[in-house]
Amino acid sequence: MKYPPRHKVVIIGCGNVAWHIAKHLHARGNFDIKVINHRPNHLLEEFAGQFECEVQEGFSKEEKADLFFVCVPDRYISSVAKKIRSAAAHPLIIHTSGSARINELQPSGMKCGVMYPLQTFSRKDEVEWKQLPLIIEAKDAGTKKKLKNVASLFSRSVHAMSYEQRSRLHLAAVMVNNFPNALFSAAQNFLAKNGQPAHFNMLFPLMERTVEKATALGPLKAQTGPAKRGDKKIIQRHESLLKKDAELKKIYRLLSKLIARQQKKADA
């Protein structure tokens, strides 16, 4: 029986994206994985235990790897890239950021690419890679082809984009993911401060249904509530309930005005 060749992959970083890339490649079975973090981190032990991979703190030598994934915060990408050395003939270095330029990898001296997974990651999640959009970018046709092959190991939904397109998509991702989470947290704190902490759980079905309707109908058609209806009396009542939290009251007012403008434009 002929076995497929094993490929050496180095993953730099030990956050959630690094974890799920390692998990996916480990499950495929034909990758030798090494995880490096640029500074000491106890999470490296979890990688070693879970994926039976080599782990290392800091950079000490050339790595005989064809593929490097840089999964660190944007501010560290360039400095980390400077420290990477490969003994392979044609290595490829990839960062997974939605907002960092591909040029951040140039200090490595290798062929560079971007593979941005359009998803939110937590360590305990079960990630469905097959349908997860992967946004890729490369500087030349040969690297782009190689990058597509790498991305296809993860997903069937691979999209080549420019830096400007990826940046706008990343901003939109922040709007639909991070901003709602901030509002969920604000709602939870509001109820807790007013003696109703357990009542936040009652909002879970509404939170789920909100996403379902926005997906099925489109967010504008799915919109409901006092701002859409132009019900100033209820809006004023809500603002009075927020009188002890000036920041949240301001956010409520701004979002209500945004909803009203969107509805007015849709009705025009």
Task: Record keyword descriptors for this entry.
48% helix, Rossmann fold, N-(1-d-carboxylethyl)-l-norvaline Dehydrogenase, domain 2, 268 residues, alpha/beta
How does this structure look, described?
This protein has helices at residues 16-28, 43-51, 74-83, 141-152, 163-193, 204-217, 219-222, 226-229, 232-241, 246-267, and strands at residues 7-12, 31-37, 54-57, 67-70, 92-95, 111-117, 134-138, 158-160. It has 268 residues and is an alpha/beta fold. The protein folds into 2 domains: 7-161, Rossmann fold (3-Layer(aba) Sandwich); 166-267, Orthogonal Bundle (N-(1-d-carboxylethyl)-l-norvaline Dehydrogenase, domain 2). Helix 4 (141-152) links the parallel strand 7 and strand 8. The longest helix has 31 residues, at 163-193. It starts with 6 loop residues before the first strand and ends with a helix. The mean pLDDT is 94.
Give unreliable regions as ranges.
Answer: none
CATH architecture of the largest domain: 3-Layer(aba) Sandwich
The rough form would be described as elongated
Helicity range: 40-55%
Number of domains: 2
Helix and strand element order? EHEHEEHEEEHEHHHHHH
Number of helices: 10
Strand content: 5-15%
Query: What's the CATH topology name of the largest domain?
Result: Rossmann fold
The end-to-end distance, rounded to whole angstroms, is: 68 Å
Superfamily (CATH H level) name of the largest domain: NAD(P)-binding Rossmann-like Domain
Radius of gyration: 23 Å
Number of strands: 8
